[in-house]
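Dear Dr. L.,

I hope this message finds you well. Following up on our conversation about the binding site, I have prepared a predicted three-dimensional model of the protein together with adenosine-5'-triphosphate. For your records, I am including the exact sequence and ligand specification that went into the calculation, followed by the structure tokens. Please feel free to forward this to your student if that is useful.
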Amino acid sequence: MRILGIETSCDETAAAIVDGRRVVSQRIASQMQVHARFGGVVPEVASRRHVETVTRVVAGALADAGAAWGDLDGIAVTCGPGLLGALLVGVSAAKGLALVTGLPLVGVHHIAGHVAAAFIDTAITPPCLALVVSGGHTELLRVDPPFCLTKLGGTKDDAAGEAYDKVARMLGLPYPGGPEVDRLAQSGDPAAYAFPRALMEDEGFDFSYSGLKSAVHNEIAKQRQRGEEVNPADVCASFQQAVVDVLVEKTARAVIRTGLRTVVVAGGVAANQGLRRALTARAAADGFAVHFPPLALCTDNAAMIAVAGGLLLELGVRHPLSLNAEANLSLAAWQQACGQRSG
Ligand code: ATP
Ligand code: FE
Ligand code: MG
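The resulting structure of the complex is given below.
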């Protein structure tokens, strides 16, 4: 199935054509530079940029694929969660295109899209576990056939990526902070500071990162008060170790609890070198398989939305032209809208 995917949930305007699990073409117009001077994404600015860019990006993806509308089997678009104004641009564009082309339309949950990135160019099929670590989410999910996602646990406060971005800001590092913290952590001492590992001993699969964020803030403030020079590499390495320790431990426990021996990692923080190393080592030690998508498919893109949309269209899922965007769309509500029970 050849699917056009459109993603505008945050600060990337993206369109892609996929054929099953293969990416035929993809265009991503990042607004990173626009938002960098504000130190974070400004929702209204993001919406306006999407409006300016979305048709050009879609036309580009189609041209790169050498495809005409008649070559496609469906249109998939992110319908939530995300910034409402940003989502509305993609949803409206997709609906307009579905109306004139007559192609079937399917709305995709952004996190289901991140999970589907793991299927691109691989033979991985559900059942499996998914660790989603992004700017707005930190969740452990089980993925059952055909494509049913059930949340095992998630963050009670900040997402992992959000914590990375906030720590980067405390250290005066450029936005977005995650990659910068990751880079600095390589040369720091992960044992320099004993930052908290929240809920590490807890039996459940929830996460909490606001305490860790405060601990880093307090440590930096304490050192500055004493007139000491803060070593950013040590702070980054110790912070990253605390984040990674909890993610790895909970994931390994979910493998034991569910008996599912394949783990896919998704979302922007899946690009993190420390997490990749630690989880790969733990998987080898415990005897489970772990898959990280290539870096470009970890962060927001439209190929993942198109692949997820293709899976649903194959199952006969179609959404009406009254499809709406929802900023806080839950996985369970979305699965219901797809006519699937959450596992
Ligand atoms: P969501 O998917 O939850 O709606 P989002 O789409 O904004 O949020 P992504 O684009 O998937 O999130 O990921 C962006 C996040 O990933 C940012 O917080 C960024 O700092 C973080 N990130 C990217 N690369 C790295 C890295 N190498 N190490 C740690 N964090 C990283
Ligand atoms: Fe995302
Ligand atoms: Mg992003």
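In brief: The mean pLDDT is 96.

With kind regards,
A. P.
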